[in-house]
Amino acid sequence: MKKIDPSVYLFSLGHLSVDWCQGAIPALLPYFIQHYELSYQEAGTLIFANVLIASVLQPLFGYYSDRISRPWFVPLGTVLCGLAVTLMGYCSSYGAVFLAAMLSGIGSAVFHPEAALMVNRIAAKAKGQALGTFSVGGNAGFAIGPVAAGFCAYKIGIHSLLLFGIINAVLAAVIFMRMPAVLAQVSRYREQEKGQKSQAGGDNNWKAFGILSFPILARSIGFTLSNTFIPIYWMSVLHASATQGTTALSILFTLGACITFAGGLLADRFGYVTIIRAAFFCMAPTYLLLTHTTDIWIASLLLVPAAISIFMPYSPIVVLGQTYLARNAGFASGITLGLTTTLGGVFAPMVGWAADRWGLVFALQIFWIAGLIGLIASFFLPEPEQE
Questions:
Q1: Rounded CA gap, 132 and 259, in Å?
Q2: Is residue 187 situated within a structural domain?
Q3: Do the Cβ atoms of 105 and 53 come closer than 8 Å?
Q4: The total number of structural domains that make up the chain
């Protein structure tokens, strides 16, 4: 295992603070369905509101970061996400919740490209490991978020979502105060790279990046729709309680935190494309079985290969994107790091619409179809040279 810069852990902490808010929203869907009498389609549209704004803005912020870095975007994104979840606890209508979900998407879009670009700059030759460590923070947030939100909404009271805003504000303050030291470290690393072949001096391979867009979409469908519909699937199909549904989601993301880190290490050793291909080879049969079982124990066991399929390719996809678009690493970060966790949410309303008409099981067949598309595309990805 290579040594990575300690600053990576700071950004991983920030990633946790952003994504525990993103993970909280799907866990709150059963609450909103009950109290606002929402359909599956309306519930899915809340996720759509969150991810659409993030999907559109993240590449734009990434493009902007390639030209003028704005490190204060990192704590700002943290604050906005915490504020959004807090507001959900005080909303009195579906429209207000919809706007709060959009605000959370803005916070996510502000944070991810800048943070990922800075991690890339200080990662040296251990990019897979560094991005894996950074991603662990996000996946840990997605694991903690559903449990925390579920506890607040179903045990203490919906107003206790104020906890998210308070904790995120404190973490943002810590990150902001440490940022000057981090920027000095970034400058030192960039000075060391002068005279060497660096990412900024490479060429853009748009064809390879275009092929990568299919695994990005496939992984995002698996990630975002699992995040959205697993609690609902556990309650509606497996007849579990709301608590069991949020627990299943937390199990998935707890496994994901470990698997994401392992995926980065394995990618540095065996190649990024190899790990991506292995993950999608696992995704199609796993989700085919998961969406056809009515046994809660079998479904729970299938969470393990499900986590492997959607979390192992995360950091390899980000590193490949930054490598293919070497001259625009910030833009690549905005698309790969952001869209691999948001783009699939665009399908949430359509999946909800299909579930309302033909049943949730039928609608969720999109999982294994996406895995098959990602697997096919992975065989056309060029493996970059490893230093």
A1: 9
A2: yes
A3: yes
A4: 1
Angle in degrees, CA 220, 225, 227, rounded to 5: 100
Range of the domain at 113: 9-378
pLDDT digits (tens, 9 = 90+) for 95-152: 899 999 999 989 988 888 888 778 877 766 666 677 778 878 887 888 788 889 988 9
Q: Which pTM was predicted? A: 0.71
Q: Is 343 exposed, middle or buried (0-12, 13-18, 19+ CB in 10 A)?
A: buried
CATH for 372: 1.20.1250.20
Q: How wide is the angle at C-alpha 59 spanned by C-alphas 57 and 65, nearest 5°?
A: 100
pLDDT in tens, 312-360: 998 888 888 878 887 776 677 667 766 666 667 678 788 888 988 999 9
Q: What is the largest CA-CA distance in the chain?
A: 62
> Which tokens sit at 257?
């935190």
The total number of residues shown for the chain amounts to 387
Q: Render 85-118 in DSSP notation, one character per residue.
A: HHHHTT--SHHHHHHHHHHHHHHHHHHHHHHHHH
**Which two structure tokens, joined as six digits, stand for 245?**
């549904």
What the block records as the tokens of 347 is 């399908």
**Residue 385 belongs to some domain of the structure:** no
Residue 4 lies in a domain: no
The residues facing 325 across adjacent strands are 204
Within 13 Å, how many C-alpha atoms sit on residue 57's CB side? 20
The verdict on residue 106 lying in a domain is yes
Compute mean pLDDT per 10 residues along the chain, 387 residues long, and list them: 73 90 86 82 80 76 68 90 94 89 90 81 69 81 86 90 94 88 72 53 81 92 86 89 83 85 84 94 95 93 95 87 78 69 73 89 93 95 72
